[in-house]
Design goal:
single chain; alpha+beta; about 25% helix; globular; 9-stranded antiparallel sheet
């Protein structure tokens, strides 16, 4: 697994975020949320410019949001899709290079590193920011930022 192990402090900007939310074990909810969201992608992009994709998640209780970053506040969303102006903030950044199938293991490793280094956390969603497009990027070149909310 190709994962950076030294946290880098970064500031995530505010952004417009549309998403589907699932509650329960990530092993079943994450994939389901992304599959359902992709069914709405063409309807969302008909009236909005999609600038990226990221997941927001909380470990306790297990809440998973699969979502798209938009260029502006959304227009004419499908009723199943929610919107929030994501506030951004300070995060400890780790980068996984490679298959999305490595994300569960990589996330577990990140949380272990954060605990070992006694990183001061704040109560907020953690982030998986997908930095390139899996439709046009070879699987071994995919890059995902794993961002842990830092106090």
């Amino acid at each position: 697994m190709n994962l950076t192990t030294e946290p880098e402090i970064v500031t995530q900007p505010e952004t417009h975020y549309v998403f589907l939310e699932k509650v329960g074990p990530f092993s079943s909810t994450a994939r389901q949320a992304w599959q359902e969201l992709h069914e709405f992608a063409s309807a969302i992009s008909m009236h909005n410019r999609i600038d990226g994709a990221m997941a927001l998640y909380r470990i306790g209780p297990q809440i998973y949001r699969a979502g798209f970053l938009l260029a502006a506040a959304p227009q004419q969303l499908p009723p199943e899709v929610q919107y929030v102006r994501f506030g951004g903030g300070k995060y400890s950044r780790f980068v996984l290079t490679g298959s999305y199938s490595n994300l569960p293991e990589a996330s577990g490793r990140v949380w272990s590193i954060v605990a070992d280094k006694q990183v001061s956390l704040r109560d907020d969603f953690a982030i998986e920011n997908y930095m390139n497009d899996p439709r046009t990027t070879p699987e071994d070149k995919l890059m995902t930022e794993i961002l842990v909310p830092t106090a």
